[in-house]
Amino acid sequence: AQRVTQPEKLLSVFKGAPVELKCNYSYSGSPELFWYVQYSRQRLQLLLRHISRESIKGFTADLNKGETSFHLKKPFAQEEDSAMYYCALLGSSNTGKLIFGQGTTLQVKP
Amino acid sequence: KAGVTQTPRYLIKTRGQQVTLSCSPISGHRSVSWYQQTPGQGLQFLFEYFSETQRNKGNFPGRFSGRQFSNSRSEMNVSTLELGDSALYLCASRGQGRETQYFGPGTRLLVL
């Protein structure tokens, strides 16, 4: 079964602290994984996707096929990073079906 | 380019009624997917349309249906509304292949 698990509903850190949002997936084949972010009162937007290997707003994520993980990391959290973060898996090829995790709320305290 | 737009943004209906939601994709995008977002179930895939054909369907009852027009605009319809259908309905558009999906602001449906 294709599944995405985000074990933490809420992650609360202080400004300047490192952040790691966990994401584990279940997928037979080569997965395509994404992190989406939803700021308060804004639409869901792409943060990064693993094939691009970009760093956006200081966030990075590495696909670990052995551990079936795609954790999102940032070395120094900023208050403006406070938002809901969703890890998502693109299902089989030639389809737009995204399978989302339950989301993690990141709260960055001053 | 203008982003994905959805109308209406808010809707209040009563049980048993039906509702139609509309989504206009980014210009040039031919794929439109619909998702339901609720606090309990999170984001769940409803269906995807590409070039007016339904290409994929999630695990939702037949009361949920959709269609896509030749200009790629899409509508979803929910008949015989139930209280549990109260949710934020999101649509997303993408170009071809495995391009990134871009989401609209959503339509918030409240069923009383």
What is the strand and helix layout of this fold?
The complex is a heterodimer of chains A (110) and B (112).
Chain A: E1 3-5, E2 10-14, E3 19-21, E4 24-26, E5 32-38, E6 45-49, E7 60-61, E8 72-74, E9 83-90, E10 98-100, E11 104-109
Parallel strand pairs in A: 2-11
Antiparallel strand pairs in A: 1-4, 3-8, 5-6, 5-9, 7-8, 9-10, 9-11
Chain B: E1 5-7, E2 10-13, E3 19-24, E4 31-38, E5 42-50, E6 53-57, E7 64-68, E8 74-78, E9 87-94, E10 102-103, E11 107-111
Parallel strand pairs in B: 2-11
Antiparallel strand pairs in B: 1-3, 3-8, 4-5, 4-9, 5-6, 7-8, 9-10, 9-11
Structural commentary:
The complex is a heterodimer of chains A (110) and B (112). Chain A has 110 residues and is an all-beta fold. Chain A contains no helices and 11 strands. In chain A, strands 2, 5, 6, 9, 10 and 11 form a 6-stranded mixed sheet that branches. Chain A has a 3-stranded antiparallel sheet with strand order 3-8-7, with no helix packed on it. In chain A, strands 1-4 form a two-stranded antiparallel sheet. In chain A, strand 5 and strand 6 form a beta hairpin. Chain A is globular. Chain B has 112 residues and is mainly beta. Chain B contains no helices and 11 strands. In chain B, the strands form 2 sheets. In chain B, strands 2, 4, 5, 6, 9, 10 and 11 form a 7-stranded mixed sheet that branches. In chain B, strands 1-3-8-7 form a 4-stranded antiparallel sheet, with no helix packed on it. In chain B, strand 7 and strand 8 form a beta hairpin. The model of chain B has no long low-confidence stretch (mean pLDDT 94). Chains A and B meet through strand 5, strand 6, strand 9 and strand 10 of A and strand 4, strand 5, strand 9 and strand 10 of B.
